[in-house]
Structure formats: structure tokens, C-alpha cells
Amino acid sequence: MKVVKLSKDQRKTIGSVIQAIILAVLLVLLFRAFFMANRYIPFQEEERVKQGDPGFIALSYFGVDRDGTSTLISTQRLEEHINALKRNGYVTISQKDIMEYYSKGTPLPEHSLFLMFEDGRRDTAVFSSKILEKYNYFATILSYGQKLEGKDDAFLLPEDLEKLKESSFWEWGTNGYRLSYINVFDRYDHYLGELNLQEFNDMRQYLGRNYNQYLMDYIRDEESIPKETQGQMKERISKDYQLMENVYTNKLGGLPVLYVLMHANTGRFGNHEKVSQVNEEWIKKFFYMNFNREGDSKNDRETNRYDLTRMQPQTYWYPNHLLMRIKADTGRDMIFEEGDKKRKADWEILKGAGEFRDSQIVLTSEPEGHGLLRLEESRTFQDLSLSVDLKGNILGIQRVCLRAGDALEKSVIIELKNNVLSVYDNGSSIYETDLAEFDGKVFKTVREDELEALKGAETLYKNNSQLSYNIEEVKAEIKQKEESDLPDKDYVPDFQINESGSRKLDITLKGSHLSIDIDGRNAVSDLAVTNAQAGALYLESAFENFGYSQRNIADNVYDGVFENLLIKDDSGNVLYDNQLKGGELVFYGIRKTWNRIINWFIKTL
Q1: Which neighbouring-strand residues pair with 438?
Q2: What is the number of other CB atoms lying within 10 angstroms of the CB of residue 344?
Q3: If you ran DSSP here, which 8-state letter would residue 231 be given?
Q4: Rounded distance, CA 248 to CA 537, Å?
Q5: I need a surface site. Which of 44, 443, 552, 562 has the fewest CB within 10 A?
Q6: 431 and 167 in contact (C-beta within 8 Å)?
Q7: How far apart are CA 388 and CA 400, in angstroms?
Q8: pLDDT at 547
Q9: Is 132 within 8 Å of 75 (Cβ atoms)?
Q10: How far are the Cα atoms of 104, 294, 388, 538, 541 from residue 566, in angstroms, in the given order?
Q11: CA 217 centroid distance within chain
Q12: d(Cα 262, Cα 120) in Å, to the nearest integer?
């Protein structure tokens, strides 16, 4: 067979043609991803409940990103949430439906969902619209009046909001006029004063919880004494509502009927009674309804329409996490996501919900409780080696229980809790190590961290002469800290509720000896255990008392993530293998590569 040799120009031409074909295919896919061809179809009248009052749930997402960030949910995870809600019979309702529900007593469908997206981000609309169309869901996009004036390309402009409304899948609401902060202190109680969003984000790494939003309180000094009179406070807050009314009227023809007061959960409409009174007056003058709380999702006729509550799903929530929270709020049974039924068949779900997705076993705990799986056919397991990647968030509990009998606590338990590895045997703790120490992590000192915070404040005040703090005092405190010779200690930052974790565990249990490697390094060698009896293997996830989190004050569900679980007996025979293999692994790799290509084009074009 004669081989045709191509010239350099011919190869270049063919390469260009192939690239053009790939680009054309991608452009078609992108067009199909974002072009909305259908119209929203509201729920049917016969779906309204005839008796009782099931109320409605409200969900509010911060925003949407193709890949996802710490605050913006990925398109994949958002679609998983929407799909799970759809499978459980939820239909979306509009602001008009809520108005008629409260003003006329008009019943809603049994599974009613009011869906919101906050902050009016452009990427939210781009990446969520096609999902709404696919599932025939309707949503409210919230925006800040200040952003409608067109000074930030990341946010939707009035013409964008008009187009969304014309698509039939969206309506408008508002978060207010501005997103800014007052009475801000860093975590060392240095007073920062009033910060706009950019300044706040610049200093976020040094902040604790001591700050407030613009409409929530008097503006105060470093001693927390009001810097404004009651009249000045009322004038300042009133001006914000008037600015909001002006911009919405000029840009969009009027205010929407829905408001979301930032920040919620004060028990009224502000942290101070007098501030609350001013907010309440304007809210009731301008709006028909206000979402005043966050955490719980359910509202009913007993709920004041100016004190509505919403749940804010987080970016790290797997779909069963969302369903578990809704179940707790509504008291209704849910159809949980199971994933691969063939993989699920190997396990018995005893508590919580288990989803089997590719090489992951996602075990969602019950609220303030546990999730528990038992591997079928494992009751005779005794001597074995086990490897698994624990991918749940750092704050929380993931456990592997070996040689378990009727009393689970008597088994050999390997636990990862809040970045601490522990081993329990017959109900007693026999080993514990902080994994930060195991990693040899070197922390800066408290003084070094405080100096960084002060220097951040110095830069802040240099760039904004309007800030109220005295920069000379900042410089003086920096000099004092630098010259101090007082004893110092390590600054160990608190873990955040959304901080992801990833640890590879290799466990060997033989006779009365246990060894554990963490991320390829030995942590435990020949640790003596007393439980030498054969028994079953369990996986467990558990809620941990995280305490207060300003980003998510009420989350009490935890997703344990067990990936690439492989179990062998002491002879090397495979007892269980949840890793992807062969065609599954190839397809998984192709899918991930294709998604990376699509993501690159979306962010580059």
C-alpha cells in the first residue's frame, strides 16, 4: 500500500480544518447551552391543595458559576439540586402566587417552591437559565440598586433584567440599594469603621464576626458608641430606600414587590430597636413581602409576609444534603438520590442517605445525627487491608468501623474529625493525632498575624481618605507590635464550615495489630487492639456542633465522602472494590476532559 506523504502546508491546512470543525461544534454546543427556546409553563390549577395548608419552601442561592467557587454553586451541582427537587414533586411558584396566598387565601400546590438567586450577578443568569428551562422552573433574580447604574460589568444591567423577564423564566426582586458594611472590627478588635464591598473583601482574611451591614445598626465608633443621632440614623437609612426607589423607577419603571433585607435573623428589622423601626416603616411602605430570616425553608399562612424565611443551599451540599434539610423543615418524607443502583446493592443504609456516584460513596447524616452504611457480606471480615480517600469537609466526622458486632461502638473505629485522626477500640480512645502537626505545618505567630492585619488596615486607609480611622494610630500600633518582646504563640486559624478536606487512608488490621498510613506517610505502626473477633464493616458520617457561622447559621447535616474504597483480605484477595475500572474509568476521563475544554471556551471567548 502506497503511503501518501503530505507537505507541511497540507498538514497545516488539515490541522486548521480540524480546529475549525472542533470550534464550530463547541460554538453550537455553547449556543444550545444558553439559548432559551421554550416558555415557562406554570403549575396547573388542579394542583392546588384542596384541604390544609402545606405552605411553601423558599431557597435562595448566592450565585452560579460554571465550575463553582466557595460561594457560587457550580452548574453541575445546581442541576443536581433542581433535579432532586423535581423528583420530589416540587413545582415553582411566583411572587404573585405568594401575594394571593396571603391576601386572598388562594391555596398553593402541595409541593411549592419559591426559588431565588441573590446579588444580581451576570454569571448567575448565564449559567442557571438553561437549567430553569430544562426543568420548567421559575425564579426571582435579586439585585442591588447601586449595581443597576452600570459601573460593574459583573452584575446585570436593567436591559439584562428586561431580557430575563421576557424569557418567561424570571422575575425581579431586590436586595436593597447597596452591599456595604459598618462598625467593622478585625479579629484583634482593631476598629476599621465603614467599608464598601471591595474594601471588606480586601480585609476579609483578617475579620472575625464583629461587623454589621449598612442598614442594621447605628454607625458606631471604636467604643461602640453611636456616631450619629437618632435623627441622623433615620435620615441615612431613609436615604438608602429613597435611592433604591429612584434607581429602580428610572431604570425599570418601579420597585419590585419583593425585598430581601440584608442581613437577616435579627429577630426584627435591625440590631437596634430604633433602627428596626425605620427599616420596618420603609419596607412596609415599598414592598408586599420581605425575606427577613435565613436557615429554615418553610413558610405558611402563620408566617408574617414581612418576616419570611429562606434556606441558602451551600456550594458543597450534595443533593441529599439539601433534601435532608428540607425534610427536617417540612416533616415530609423525601426521595433521596441513590446514584448507581448496582453499587448501592452492596450496602445497607441504616441511617441517613447514601448516594453512589462514580467512585464516591456520599453518606449524608441525619440532622444533628449520623449517617450509617453497612457493607453486605462483610460480617466475617477479620484481617484486612483497606484504602480510601476521605473527601468530606474538614469540619465533621467520617468513620470507618471494622470488626463490628451488635454494639458498633465496640468495633475498631478509625475516625477523622475536624482534622484530627483518632482510633477507638472497644469503646476507648487508644490513639489521636492532630493532622496539622502530622503534616509538619508551620504557623505564623499571633503577633505576625496581627501585624499583617494592621498593615492591611494601613493600606486600606491610604487608599481611601474618607475612612474614619486615624492612620497615625495604625502606624503607631504597628511600630509597637514590631518592637514588642512579649512571649508569643502560634496563630492557628479556625476551620471554616465550607472548607474542603482530602485525606488518603491506608489501613492494615491483622490480628491484634493496626497500622495506618495517611497520604502515603506512616502515622500508626502496630497499634495494639483488643477486638480480634471477625465482624462487619461500616461507614459513618456525623454532624458536629460547628457553632455559629455567619454564612450558614443553621446547618446541622454533614456529607461524608468515601472515595476509591478498596478492601483486601490478608492474602491480597479483593473483598470489595469501588474504584472505577476499564471502560468506566476511560469514560470518566473523557467526560472530565470534555468539561474542561467547554469551561475553557466559556471563560475565554
Answers
A1: none
A2: 16
A3: H
A4: 60
A5: 44
A6: no
A7: 9
A8: 45
A9: no
A10: 59, 41, 7, 14, 18
A11: 27
A12: 14
Residues 6 or more apart in contact with residue 58 via CB below 8 angstroms = 113, 114, 115, 116, 291, 297, 299, 308, 309, 310, 311
Rounded Cα distance, 289 and 311, in Å: 16
Angle at 565 between CA 559 and CA 567, to 5 degrees: 140
Q: Provide the 10 A C-beta neighbour count for residue 55.
A: 20
pTM above 0.85, yes or no: yes
Residue 592: all three cell numbers together: 472530565
Alpha helix positions (H), 223-292: 230-252, 273-286
| 180-185 and 212-213 beta bridge pairing | antiparallel
Q: Hey, what's the cell of 329?
A: 423543615
pLDDT single digits (tens) 167-225: 999 999 999 999 999 999 999 999 999 999 999 999 999 998 899 999 999 999 999 99
Give bridge partners of residue 421 from the DSSP assignment: 416, 433
Kindly report whether the peptide bond that precedes residue 321 is cis, defined as omega within 30 degrees of 0: no
Percentage of residues of the chain with pLDDT beyond 90:
74
C-alpha cell read off for 401: 468501623
Residue 6 has, within 13 A of its CA and on its CB side, a CA count of 8
Contacts of 591 (CB under 8 A, 6+ apart): none
The answer to whether 576 touches 402, Cβ cutoff 8 Å, is: no
In order, the DSSP letters of 93-111 are: --HHHHHHHHHT----BSS
Cell of 73: 454553586
C-alpha span between 585 and 487 (Å, rounded): 54
Give the Cα separation of 472 and 486 in Å (integer). Answer: 23
Cα separation of 323 and 428, whole Å? Answer: 35
Whether the CB-CB separation of 547 and 534 falls below 8 Å is answered with no
Alpha-carbon span 503 to 414, nearest angstrom: 13
Residue 558: which of 321, 313, 295, 294 has the closest Cα? 321
Q: What is the 3-state secondary structure (H, E, C) of 424-447?
A: EECCEEEEEEEHHHHCCCCCCEHH
DSSP states of 323-339 as a string? HHHHHHHH--------B
Written as nine digits, the cell of 130 is: 438553561
Residue 5 CA to residue 573 CA, distance in Å, equals 52
Angle at 365 (CA atoms; ends 362, 367), nearest 5 degrees? 145
Radius of gyration of the chain (CA): 28
| H or E segment and range at residue 474 | helix 471-483
| Straight-line distance from the first to the last Cα atom of the chain, in angstroms, rounded to the nearest whole number | 44
255/248 Cα distance (integer angstroms)? 5
Sheet containing 212-213: give its strands across. Answer: 191-196, 180-185, 212-213
- Classify residue 372 as left (phi > 0), alpha (psi -120 to 50) or beta: beta
The residues of the chain scoring below 70 in pLDDT are 1-36, 465-470, 486, 545-554, 582-605
| Burial class for 123, CB neighbours closer than 10 Å (0-12, 13-18, 19+) | middle
Give dist(CA 324, CA 322) in Å, integer: 5
Question: Rounded to whole angstroms, what are the CA distances from 290 to 96, 148, 400?
Answer: 14, 20, 45
Among residues 395, 396, 406, 393, the alpha carbon closest in space to that of 350 is found at 406
Return the DSSP state at 306: T
